[in-house]
Structure formats: structure tokens, C-alpha cells
Amino acid sequence: MTSASQARDRSRWPTAPERVHSVCPHDCPSCCPLEVERLDGNRIGTVRGATDNSYNAGVICAKVARYGERVHHPDRLTKPLRRVGKKGDASGFKPLSWDDALEEVAEALANAAQRDGPEAVFPYYYSGTMGLVQRDGLQRLRHTMRYSRQRNTICASLGNAGWKAGVGINLGPDPREVSESDLIIIWGANPVYTQVQFMTHISRARKARGAKLVVVDPYRNATAAQADLHLMVKPGTDGALACAVMHVLFAEGFADREYLAKYSDCPDELETHLKNRTPAWAAAITGLTVDEIVEFARLYGRTK
After folding, report:
1. Which tens digits make up the pLDDT trace of 57-73?
2. Inter-axis angle of helices 290-302 and 279-286, to 10 degrees?
């Protein structure tokens, strides 16, 4: 084939799809920037984590990686449906217009409020996708119509309360710093599925520094399967494990007493409280062995 004919042949090849920048809309601490393959004005192809972002490093979770399949799935709902049959009957729906659907919903809300008062309407929602309309737009309707209010305690309230009690403010280290760690403890989380980018930086620490990975979780989940030590406590007993670990740290001289004196309010009372919170005491509660608890405490105490 001549050079001229090769050039003509190449001109018929399809051009590479355009890649555009976007961001994941899900309620997730990773806040992932994305690179999305734009096939044309109406369709997307592959979705990847942004390669120029140092946290993502090109990684994205499996759910978001398959966004194109979800958005363009032939069975995806594209119009309102009204149930006309019994639950479980796939043919028990018929389509209606958006105007009719909105009219029905508005009428039902108005009737409930007129009959039983506005607080009879409870607009239940949570984060899901993080756009202002999807997440917080409903609050304007709630306040304008004086509907029942909602305490958003379904997700992270317990963790936030504990973090604020121990740290004082919702701030923490840059998660990328985990790649410079020698000991990584994942306590009650499964980032293999819930924050896969974080596992990338854990993997770097293990490869480059020989970092140890400890997982505290009642489930033998995917993250625990990768751990050097999995402490599979009984559900709801990890507080006893924490007490026994602190008992060992005080008893064996690992506690940083100068730091405690400067930054905590009652370290002496804490040490007294923990005197009888021994590994044997915690083992009977958590289902762990004494050796597992002591091993973990010493590993923690010896790692600077």
C-alpha cells in the first residue's frame, strides 16, 4: 500500500472520543473528579477517575465506572408511571404525563395538609446525589408549606459525635498522607467498596514502607481480607476493645503522658478508669483472644 492510499484509509478511521472533565454527584467523602468519554451530544461512554488528581490517581469505584450503562439502559424510567395493578405485577403500570403526575402529587399534599394540618406531610429525603436541587431544594418547600421537619441522623451522626468529642472539630489529616504511614488501622469501615481511592494510598504504603494494615470490623469483608490483622469483634463491642488497648498502653509505658497533660482534660482519671479494663475483661466481651488484643495494643504503641 502506498503512502497516499494509507493516508486516505486513515481518513476513514473514527476519531477518538472526546474526554471531558466532570465530578461525581454521589454523597461520598472522596468527592471524585472524573474523566468522561463523550460519544456525541447525547451519550457517554467510559467513566474514569481523573488521572491528574493526586487523590484519585485515575481510580474510580465500580458503581460510577458503569454510569454509562445506567444512564443509557433501555429499561431506565423516562416518564412517570401510575400503578393500575397489584404490586409485583410488571404490567400493572400505565404512563402519564409529567403535568398530570405533578398535579396528582400536589393535590395529595394539599389534601393531607387541609385535612390534618401541614405537619401531616413529611418530606423525607437524604443526600443521594449532591446537587443543590436534588438534595436541598426540598427544604424550601418544607419551610414554605410548614411541613414536618427532619433530623438528619440516619447516616453519620454517631461518628460525628464521637469525632467531635475526641478531636473537637470535624477536621483530620490529608488522606493522601496514609501512603507515608507505617501502621494503618481501619476501624468499622470497608473502603475496598466505599472509598476505593483510599485503598490505593494504603497499597502504596504497604509496598514502599512495609506498612501493617489492621482492620477492626465484625464482618469478614473485602477490606478485612487484605489485612495483616483482622480483629473480628462482636457487633457493638469495639468500645471494650478500645478500653483494653488503652489499658495496655498505660500499663506498658506507651502512653504519651506529656501530650495527654497538655491536650486532654482528665488523663489521670482515665487511667484509673481503665485499671480493670484488662485484655481478659475485653476478650470476654468482644470475642477476641487476649493475645489478639495485646498484639494490637503493642503494635499501636510501638509505632511512632
Report:
1. 899 998 899 999 999 99
2. 120
